Amino acid sequence: MSPGSISKTMRTTAFKLSAIYLIIFSIFAIFLIVYISLNTQLLMTRQLNSTIVAEVRGLVEQYRSGGMAGLIKIIEERSRRPGASLYLITDSRGLYVAGNVAALPKWVLDERGAVEQTVTYQRLGENERKDNNAVVSVYEMFGGYRLLVGRDVGEREQFRKVVEQAFIVSAILMIVLAMLAWIFVSRKVLKRIEMITEASGNIMRGQLDERLPVTQAGDEFDRLSESLNTMLSRIEMLMRGLKEVSDNIAHDLKTPLTRLRNRVEVTLSSDQQDVESYRQALEQTLEESEALIRTFDALLRIARVEAKSTQIEKAPLDVGAIAADMAELYEPVAEDEGARLTWKADTGYMINGNRELISQALANLIDNAMKYAVRHAVEQRQETEADGTEPLQPHIHIAVSRKTISNNADKQDSLGLIILTVSDNGQGIAEEDRDRVLQRFVRLDKSRNQPGSGLGLSLVNAVASLHDAKIELGDNEPGLIFSICFPPLDEQ
Amino acid sequence: MRILIIEDDIEAAAYLAKGLKEAGHHCEHAADGAQGYDMATKGGYDVMIVDRMLPKRDGLSIIESLRGSGDETPVLILSALGEVDDRVTGLRAGGDDYLTKPYAFTELLARIEVMARRRSPGEVETVYRVADLELDRLAHNVKRAGETILLQPREFRLLEYLMKNAGQVVTRTMLLENVWDYHFDPQTNVIDVHISRLRSKIDKDFGPALLHTVRGSGYSLREPD
């Protein structure tokens, strides 16, 4: 690791967390070890003391029954046992009488009674002068004799050393393990974060279709990446919508605007103009501007619907009632055009939606169906006139139904989608063109010379997607079946 | 009528005032929200035309304040925001009608005239009469020259709206909004077709025509001249 990368890892959250964890754990471990060793020492000291006191009491008993000679005999005997306690009997002048202690600081013997002392002593029979520590108790007997009983505390010291060692070893082990854990965790975490940082950097540099990496781990990072990805998709969709709107404005609004401008210019520059031709030019200008406003409004509305603005209020509504209302509105229009408009729209098909938008989408569909059915009938009539067969009557049918597909994994389908269909007996749309017609300003070549903005179906598309509805285009043989499949109300 | 126009675009306001003057109305103009509110509180206007987005004070807040102080002067809101929800907020704030820019002047004129008349006090009529045409709102029947005319429910509502605003010009959009409750522009001439159906029922077999087409604006149901 280079110095730069070290300082970078030092700044990471993983490092900080590991360090905090290490410190807290160390404090706890130190506390535990100190507590245990202190308590054990205390316990051992207490045990030592009680052993000494008991031994002194026993020896005093012996002295009382067997006299000094008996005591000395016992002391001599006990002194020789392996791992024996310390024993010393001195006379009134402090001179050695019996026992296994060779040298002892003088002051110890002056302590009266069973006093617990830690002293440095030398054991009898040990060649070299070695200082050992012991706890001793001194008992004064008749005639200036003194009895000293003690126990070596080396054992206790050894135990302390063992604990100390254990502490040091475990501390080192802990630090090493913490370091390893930190390196492992931070490397893993840093790698994930770095991946996310890199991806977002790319996105910022303009690769809007790039997404944050999602592993199969299903952890917090995946969840974060997933929700950020959802957000990015939404933003991308909005951006695309915005871009499309501006493209469309450039494309389909500039042409009529140019026409408008040219007409005004020509009218103004021409010398021989009477009032009537001015009026005519103005009327045309007004008409053209109205068409422009309509296109503009339609574009804005589509963009707004596509952006799925949350401000668009939705309420429970009956598709059957909407269809019936709209059919009733258009029925006289169809009749005027020499077409037949029929509908089968029972009430009770409830969805959660926006009445205005669904109505407008349906109006656009009926408009389209009527336009194509009528045109197709006219074309057919020209062909059939010669052989005298029954002329084809344009027919538009609106229907609302519930589709139930039982053995379908899709839950919405199994509960029954609400299908709004508009079918006509026009020439229909070839299968390969069906997806394309839903886009903005797309008008199949055949209809290029027909009036209409080419926005009707893209509004329908936007409205459908706002309502999570699917669009299906089918063949009516002849003609087109246009279906919008809404999820029913109880689903949402 | 005395009309107050609160609109920050001076040129648009001037065109509006010119058109309204030619239609025989008296106009006053405020160029920002604060001035508009001051003028509005002095009162004496029959109709107010309020732009929604104004400098100094928002159009909707002016209307809310006026309504809060009990001023019931009819207000037409003008706005560049034309979505359904914008309209609803506008009307909830206390506006009587909502018109999206850019609008046709004839549309605006028809709307404020209808609005101003609607305010005229008087008991709610249950029977509308225009010449020998009679519409009974309670009994749901229509007679002309004493002869009962059978109408579809929607035709009845269409005629009801026309008769309620008899003598006024009503535009196609107004009909679509008030009779059908749609606020979008169907590209086909749906309203014209419905009007001509209605006309064939109430006018065709009877004396002078009552339902007139007003060129460039809409329709008007009125007494024969």
Runs of chain A in which pLDDT lies below 50 for 5 or more consecutive residues are: 443-451
Mean pLDDT score of chain A: 78
What is the 3D shape of chain A?
A: rod-shaped
Spatial separation of the terminal alpha carbons of chain B: 23 Å
Overall SS class of chain A: alpha+beta
What series of H and E elements makes up the topology of chain A?
A: HHEEEHEEEHHHEHEEHEHEHEE
- Percent of residues of chain A in helical segments? 55-70%
Low-confidence stretches of chain B: none
Helix and strand content put the structural class of chain B at alpha/beta
Number of helices of chain B: 8
Strand order of the largest sheet of chain A: 2-1-6-5-4-3
Calculate Rg of chain A over CA atoms.
Answer: 51 Å
Strand content of chain B: 15-25%
Read across the widest sheet of chain B, the strand sequence of neighbours is 2-1-3-4-5
Main beta sheet strand tally, sense and closure of chain A:
6 strands, antiparallel
Number of helices of chain A: 10
Name the largest protein-protein interface in this structure: A-B, 29 and 22 residues
Q: What is the strand content of chain A? A: 15-25%
CATH H level of the domain at 313-405 and 414-492 in chain A: which superfamily? Histidine kinase-like ATPase, C-terminal domain
Radius of gyration of chain B: 19 Å
Give the % helix of chain B: 40-55%
